[in-house]
Amino acid sequence: MTTSMDYGDYLHLDEVLQAQHPLSPDHNELLFIIQHQTSELWMKLMLHELRAAIDNVANDQLQPAFKMLSRVSRIMEQLVHAWDVLATMTPPEYSAIRAYLGHSSGFQSWQYRCIEFACGNKQSAMIEQHRHRPNRVAEVEAALQQPSLYDETLRLLNRRGVSVPDAVLQRDVSGPYVADPGVEAAWLQVYSNPEAHWDLYQLGEELVDLEDAFRLWRFRHLTTVQRIIGFKTGTGGTAGVSYLRAMLEVELFPELWSIRTAL
User: Fold this and answer.
1) What CA dihedral angle connects 81, 85, 90 and 91, to 10 degrees?
2) What is the pLDDT of residue 235?
3) Each residue of 67-123: pLDDT tens digit?
4) Which of 143, 166, 145 is nearest to 155 (CA)?
């Protein structure tokens, strides 16, 4: 530690504040850049917390995992409100900068893809968006092959004596998770007697909190995109609003939602 280090040195603010390079002459492009840069910084922290939480669940260390998952949910809430700022950009303002964006798209965010994979939304086709960055595609592919937060949670339930079907425990974790009646029965056992399974019950609620926040983020993403570009295709060639609407139907932890009807 040195006494000559000040606030700006510690945070490398010179580098951070010089990382915005608008390509258009339009006033509003700086908003667009900072919105996405700050979101990527929050995603970096989210991945840091998610990966640590997964490791802790895998090692039966639930107390630190609870704190990490709570933090991830709060980060997601921060990202939800970030859309409020971008939504101040009107369609003519976005049109003034769109031609300067080339084929760049948030769809190409490798950190976001790793977050989706860590939460269990495994879609191998999504890796193709990252082929132009060999170092990054390797990280995304690794995330695809690793057990998700839900995979490790279900393994934990089984270790704690709450039976989970072998077919679920032994599934190919690189593929999308499919809801299973045996897993619903396992969660019903936990939720029907919280006192006997309190830490598993709390873990279930942490997952519900996380997915709830994730759904809100997706919804605000959809409404902001529709507000700014309508039903145009995205800059990276994505389907835009129709794709985002489809994503609203994705359930990361389906049995934790379905048991609400049975309880």
Assistant:
1) -60
2) 60
3) 999 999 999 999 999 999 999 999 999 999 999 998 888 888 999 999 999 999 998
4) 166
* Distance from C-alpha of 66 to C-alpha of 110, rounded to nearest angstrom: 25
Closest CA to 192 of 118, 260, 116: 260
- 153 close to 162: Cβ distance less than 8 angstroms: no
pLDDT digits over 30-77, tens only?
Answer: 999 999 999 999 999 999 999 999 999 999 999 999 999 999 999 999
Cα gap 46→56, rounded to integer Å: 15
CB-based contact 214:252 (threshold 8 Å): yes
Q: What is the pLDDT of residue 147?
A: 97
Angle between helices 29-58 and 91-98 (to 10 degrees): 90
CA dihedral over 176, 182, 185, 190, signed as positive or negative: negative
